[in-house]
Structures are given as C-alpha cells and as structure tokens.
Structure of TfoX N-terminal domain-containing protein:
Amino acid sequence: MTGPTKPADRRAARRRGQEVLDDLAGTVPGVDRSFMFGSEALRVGGKVLAFVGTDGELIVKVPVERAAELVDGGTATRVRIGRNAAREWVGVLPDRPHLWPGVLDEAYRYAAGSVGSGETGSVGSG
C-alpha cells in the first residue's frame, strides 16, 4: 500500500478515515473508545478491535488465518509493529471504505469472543 507522503495529506487521510470509523462506531453494540498510536480506537470488553492508521487505513485485529486471507487477497496489508509484522493486525486500504463494515464486524466478533462478553450483535445491528 502506498499512502500519502506529505504530512498534510497524511493528516487529511487520517481525518477522513476517522470520520468513516466514527460513522460505523454508532452501529457497533457495546463498544467504547480509547487511544492507540495517536488515533481513537474502538474497544469491546477492554480489547481494542479497530483504529485508523496514519495513512487513513482501517487497522483491525482479526484471527491469524483471516488476516492472511485479507492480505493475500489484496484487501489489506500487514501492520508492522517495530520491525515485525503483526500476525493478527491488518490495515484495510483507505480507498476501499465499502469493505470496512464487514471487516469491522469480523474484528468485533473476534474481540467480543476473546473477552467472553456474550455480545451477540454485529456491526449494523445496533
């Protein structure tokens, strides 16, 4: 993924991505907000499930196998933490916001299941 290179362009891309995530957040049951890497993040049961990256991409935590599928299919890129690629964290391209609701739903279900919250809703059901 090639993102914006100028600082002003990166800030604008991040702002646009945050607006999309904010709109989606209203449809996600039982989430609260926190901060992660300077961006407002969505959490369920204290577990971060999504935030917007510096290039405006949606960063989500999904199962390892699903992360590989998203990357292999060209829908997402691996998120790097330091020198290493994160196994469960991927960035969904900012030019594909139509894919964000589905991937956010997957991240929500994964995070809700990992905290044993008993949440049965999904993105768009709230």
In short: The longest helix spans residues 7-25. The domain at 7-114 is CATH 3.90.1150.30 (Aspartate Aminotransferase, domain 1). The beta strands are 32-36, 39-44, 47-52, 58-61, 76-81, 84-92. The chain has a mean pLDDT of 85.
